[in-house]
């Protein structure tokens, strides 16, 4: 039994070493011999639409408390979004630059307290102007993948915000 256990331990160590090797190779994004393992694309190349929203005049009570979900950036907290704190009316939608955002779009807070944070809307909704709304072309990229890439790029997005939107 001790001899078999020793063999299994040695085999396990070799498998772990092999796993680590292939994991690092997979995540290195290096082309091996020009084979093109990774193809880099900009958001503009993989999105159907990138837009921001708008805010109806807050002085017009008839623009609010309707049946259209309206998202503020403070609600974008690295999460899925199933509901919004505020709603607007059709009149508010028609008299502002707010626009409908398709379900499963990736939303990035561009400025404010949650700058750089991301979310995925699980319902059709509208947003304020501080939200960058990215509707993916699902033949080019999965919205969950883009969400996680942006989620893991928070520091870079926030730094971009802090340095005045310059290329970093």
In a nutshell, what does this entry contain?
The chain is α/β, with parallel strands linked by helices and about 170 residues long.
Secondary-structure map with pairings?
Elements: H1 2-27, H2 43-46, E1 47-52, E2 64-71, E3 79-81, E4 86-88, H3 90-94, E5 106-109, E6 118-121, E7 126-127, E8 131-136, H4 143-151, H5 154-162
Parallel strand pairs: 2-7, 3-6
Antiparallel strand pairs: 1-8, 2-4, 5-6, 5-8
Domain Type I restriction modification DNA specificity: 38-157
GO molecular function: DNA binding; endonuclease activity; hydrolase activity
Protein name: Restriction endonuclease subunit S
General description of the model:
It is built from five helices and eight strands; from the N terminus they run H-H-E-E-E-E-H-E-E-E-E-H-H. With 168 residues, it is α/β, with parallel strands linked by helices. It has a five-stranded mixed sheet with strand order 1-8-5-6-3. It starts with a helix and ends in a 6-residue tail after the last helix. The model has no long low-confidence stretch (mean pLDDT 88).
**What series of H and E elements makes up the topology?**
HHEEEEHEEEEHH
Largest sheet: 5 strands, mixed
Q: What structural class do you assign from the helix and strand content?
A: alpha/beta
Sheet with most strands: strand arrangement: 1-8-5-6-3
Distance between the termini: 59 Å
Q: Helix segment count?
A: 5
Query: What characteristic shape results from the CA principal axes?
Result: elongated
Unreliable parts: none
Number of strands: 8
Instruction: Kindly state the percentage of residues in helix.
Output: 25-40%
| Beta-strand content estimate | 15-25%
Mean of residue pLDDT values: 88
Radius of gyration: 22 Å
Pfam families: Methylase_S (PF01420)
EC number: 3.1.21.-
Enzyme class: hydrolase
Organism: Helicobacter cappadocius
